Amino acid sequence: MTTLAAFEKLPTLNSATILLVGTNSVFQQQLAEAILKEKQDLKINIHLTTFLPLPTERDHIRPRIDLIVFIIDIQSKYSFKEIEASLLHVDANFFLGKVCFLTTGVGRMDQMSVDMNAVLKLADRYCSPVLFCELEVSQ
Asked: DSSP assignment of the chain, as one string?
């Protein structure tokens, strides 16, 4: 298990690979489908994982990852802890515009298990943007 490096592979022309990291596979699948439904001029590949590091035995066939989206379920402390642990396996160069945090479950503030300030501090620590959304609502 190795650190995920930002610039170890050459980019592919007119193509982007997004890695969605999160403990809720339903949210990951919904987000992937929403991204792929959008009209785009390039080919988008989406890979899903629940945590990092990724297994090393597939490194030679893994495409270059252009964006990592860490999905934090605000209703699950486990989700937050897994994302914190996964961040340790990401090369610092990824945090130069290739990482963002997506916080789900913000529409149900009464069911929050993770403090919103903890999410904001995590994003600030890694100099990465944080987006807040509700994936359980179709809009």
From this structure: ---B-SSSSPPPTTEEEEEEE-S-HHHHHHHHHHHHHS--SSEEEEEEESSSSPPGGGTTTPPPP-EEEEEEETT-HHHHHHHHHHHTTB-GGGGTTSEEEEEE-TT-GGG--S-HHHHHHHHHHTT--EEEE-TTS--
Is 39 buried (19+), middle (13-18) or exposed (0-12) by CB count in 10 A? exposed
CA dihedral 18, 70, 1, 64 (to 10 degrees): 20
Round to whole Å and give the CA distance between 95 and 89: 12
Q: Looking at the DSSP assignment, which residues form a beta bridge with residue 131? A: 102
> Does position 119 have pLDDT exceeding 80, yes or no?
yes
| Cα(71)–Cα(66) distance, integer angstroms | 16
Contacts of 51 (CB under 8 A, 6+ apart): 21, 23, 82, 85, 86
Chain centroid to Cα 93, Å, comes to 15
Q: What is the pTM of this model?
A: 0.91
Higher pLDDT among residues 131 and 108, named by residue = 131
